[in-house]
Please model this.
Amino acid sequence: MPSSPAALLRTVDDSGLPERYTRRPDVARSDLERALSTAIDRIGENLEAFYDQFPGPSSEGLVYEPTDNTEGWTTAFWTGLCWLAYEVTGERRFRDAAQAQLATFERRLESGEVETHDLGFLYTLSAIAGYQVTETERYRSAALTAADHLADRFWDAPGLIQAWGDIDSPEDSWERGRMIVDSMMNLPLLFWASEATGDSAYASIAERHARTTARHLVRSDGSTFHTFKCDVESGAPLGGETAQGYDADSCWSRGQTWAIYGYALAADYADEGAYANLSARLANYYLSNVEADHVPLWDFDAPADQTYRDTSAAAIAACGLGELAQQLPLADARARGYENAAIATLGSLAERYSTDRSESNGLLSDGAYDPTDGDYDECCIWGDYFYVEGLVRATEHWSRYW
Ligand code: GLY
Model:
C-alpha cells in the first residue's frame, strides 16, 4: 500500500490512470456554468480597453496592459476569447471586437512577420475561428497564407518544423533544426489547410512532425523534453534542451500539456489510434504528477524553493483531456477517466484560482509564463483562453477551432 499522500496520488490503475480519476469528481455542472458566465462578464468588461488591442502575454499584479498585435505568439488568445464569448452569448459586440482584431492579423501577415512556428497559435484562434463562425472568405485566405508560411519551416531530412528564428539561420545557431513540444498545437493549422484545400501536403508535414516529436521529444516514461535539435542535412538527432523548464532533463508541465492536447487533435485529423494512445500515455504521466488540487507545478522536477504552480498548464490539460476522452473508443474505460480529470481540473480552477474577487482584468491567477525569468503567479492570456474553452467544452455544444 502507498505510505505517503504523494505516493497515494501516484497510484495508478491498470490503464496507467491514477486511481482518483476513476471516480466522477464532485463538481456540479451549475458551478461550471456560473464560472463561464463570470468569465464572459469579465471579457465584456475588457472589450473597451482591448477592442483592437491585446492583453498580455502575462499580467503585472494580475492586470494586463494593452499591446499592439506584434507580440510573438499570444495575441490570438484574446481574439479566441472574443469568438467564444460571441458564440456563447450571441452578443454582437464580441463579434465586432474579434473582427476589428482580425484586421490587425491580416496586416501582420502582410508585413511579413512570419518567421515562427507560432503561426498556428496566431491564425487558428483568429482566422480559422473567424471563418468558422462568420464564413468570411478573407479569413480563410489569411489562414491558408499562414499555413503556407508554417509549411515553409519544414526540414525534410529530420522531418521537423523549426520552431524559432529565420529558417536560413546559420548552421551553428541554436535555432537551426530545433523543434519544440509546443509545436504540437500548431499542427491543426496544417491539418485544417489540407481539409480546406484538398491538398494533402500540409497534413503530410503535420504527420511527419508529429512522428518526429514522438521519436525525440517524448521520453520512455511518458514525460517530454521542451526542445530537441537535429542536423537538418543528415537528420541526425543532436539532443534535448529546455528553454522555459527547470533543466534539460526535467519535464516542463506546460510543454507536457501542449503535447497531450496536440496528439489528441492529431488523432482526430489523422484518424490514428496511435496518436490517441500517445496522448493517453502523456496524460498518465501528467495526472500521476499533478498536485492534489489538479494543478501542476510549472515543472514536475522543480526544486523545493521554486514550487510555483502553472494554472495555464492546467487549463490546457483540461481541454486536452476532454478532447482525448472524445478520441478514445466509447467502450474504452480510460475515456471516462480523462473526462473526470478534465472536470476535476476545471472545478479546481474555478473554485481556487478565479480572479473574480481580485482587482484584476484577467481570469486565472497563478499562471507561470517563465519562472526562469521571474514571471510567475500572474494571469497568462493563453491560460485564460483555455480555461474558457474548457468551460465551454464542459457546458455547451461547441465546434472546436483547432
Ligand atoms: N508556447 C510558449 C509557451 O508555452 O510559453
About this structure: DSSP finds 13 helices and seven strands in the chain. The first helix runs from residue 5 to 9. The chain has one domain: 5-395. Residues 73, 182, 244, 254 surround glycine (CB under 6 Å).
